[in-house]
Amino acid sequence: EVQLQACGGGLVQAGGSLRLSCAASGFSFDDHHIGWFRQAPGKEREGVSCISSDDGTTYYVDSVKGRFTISVDNAKNTVYLQMNSLKPEDTAVYYCAADSFERRILSGLNDWAEPTYNYWGQGTEVTVSS
Question: Is residue 2 within 8 Å of residue 119, measured between CB atoms?
């Protein structure tokens, strides 16, 4: 069974840090894009960051550049999102997602930030107080 298990969310004051983790089971991160998305109340799910498991290429939405860092440990099948200098507007439920290079190429899914990934975790809530 394919599963993505995200954890690490919580309540933090503005300016603080959190590190989210997402562990995969039932498949390997090899040849996958692994992304973090977030959804705030009343808003659409947005792409936060993505990493390519083969060469480590990373992508970030402009609002988190310089503050968030995505990384992957292929041996542990785990992806991380280090979030520093958190702001109240970062408050959301954060989801990890994964999709194979092959599926995205064959399906014409070229935008890493679109929530069209094949596998999704259950979400972990991040609340940043002002």
Answer: yes
**Beta strand 3-7 with 119-120: parallel, antiparallel or unpaired?**
unpaired
Q: Output phi, psi for 64, to 5 deg.
A: -115, 0
32-39/18-25 β-pairing: unpaired
pLDDT, mean of residues 99-120: 91
Average model confidence (pLDDT) across the chain: 95
| Average of per-residue pLDDT across 50-59 | 93
- The CA distance from 13 to 85, in Å, is 9
Maximal C-alpha separation, the chain: 44
pLDDT band at 74 (very low <50, low <70, confident <90, very high): confident
Concatenated DSSP letters for 67-102?
TEEEEEETTTTEEEEEE-S--GGG-EEEEEEEEEHH
CA torsion angle for 95, 88, 47, 35 (degrees, to 10)? -40
